[in-house]
Write a structure and sequence with these properties.
The protein has helices spanning about 1-25, 90, 95-110, and strands spanning about 35, 50, 55-60, 65-75, 75-85, 115-120, 120-125, 130-135. The chain is an alpha+beta fold and about 140 residues long. A hairpin with a 3-residue loop joins strand 7 and strand 8.
């Protein structure tokens, strides 16, 4: 009898653990604006943003410029392939530090390979971890 009770308790614990793991993962927030979790740079109020639609089309707002791209998301993996900048006039208005920050962020986005969501926070990880916050306004 004690063995049977132990086996039943063990089975219940295994089932409960698998249910918790299944409900712990949150879906990728397609169609939502994600704001990079950083302070604005000196002289600017702009914060980089990312939005990925259901079809994988990505809108990428950097420190100074904006561009489109393509994202592929499956389970916990993600790849982002940026396209060319939309407007060279935007880049011309940026100082060299802003252009350098844009290039670094774009390189970090292009190198991400995993994503994880915890509530309103979405982390993209690769060579660098980028932390975004879901805009809930």
């Amino acid at each position: 009898m004690p063995r049977r009770r132990f086996a039943c308790c063990f089975a219940v614990l295994i089932l409960a653990g698998s249910l918790l793991l299944a409900t712990a993962s949150e879906p990728f927030p397609f169609g939502s604006e994600l704001m990079l979790d950083v302070a604005p740079t000196a002289g600017s109020k702009r914060i980089p943003m990312l939005e990925v639609e259901d079809d994988g089309t990505a809108s990428i707002d950097l420190w100074c410029t904006s561009l489109r791209g393509q994202a592929t998301i499956a389970d916990d993996s993600i790849t982002i392939v940026p396209a060319q900048t939309e407007s060279d006039g935007q880049a011309a208005q940026c100082d060299p530090q802003q252009q350098s920050s844009d290039a670094a962020l774009l390189a970090a986005l292009a190198s991400v390979s995993k994503w994880r969501r915890d509530g309103d926070v979405v982390e993209l990880s690769g060579a660098t971890t980028l932390r975004y916050r879901l805009m809930t306004n």
